[in-house]
Structure formats: C-alpha cells, structure tokens
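Team,

Forwarding the record for the chain on the shared tracking sheet. I've put the sequence and predicted structure together so nobody has to dig through attachments.
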Amino acid sequence: MNKTKKIPMRSCVVTRERLPKNELVRVVRTPEGNVIVDTTGKANGRGAYLKKDLTVFEKAQKSKILNRQLEVEVKEEVFEELKALLK
C-alpha cells in the first residue's frame, strides 16, 4: 500500500485561499507580544499565514489585516522582512 503523506493546508488571511503550508509564510505574535516572521512554522504564539506573494504582503500592510488577526500593532520591519524573503 502506498501511503501518501498528508499535505497540511492553511488559509491565507488576505486572499482566503487554502494552500499547502509550504507556499505560505507564517507571521507570529509571540507570547511576549513581539511580531516575528516564523520561517520554521513552529514558533509559539498566535500565527497568521500569508501567501508568498509581494502583492499579498502589500495588501496585508495597507489593510492592516495582520494587526486584526494578531491583535497587536505590526511594525514596518516585519513587512520588510517578508519582502526580503521573496528575493
């Protein structure tokens, strides 16, 4: 029997698309209240997923959707870090 590995699916908070976890980037509010880009996908805290796409990052920044999802002010540096990931 060929057992296929289950691909974890997550929803992008901007586009609402369900995508494989590896096509998304996780932004986390840590228990201390800091917002970080979680490249491992395993950081503790409240997470929100974004599609790895510049237009999605810019939309998230303009609409302040991460501020609502993570219930905290998301700093400019977080978006800079996200954009750097795409390069």
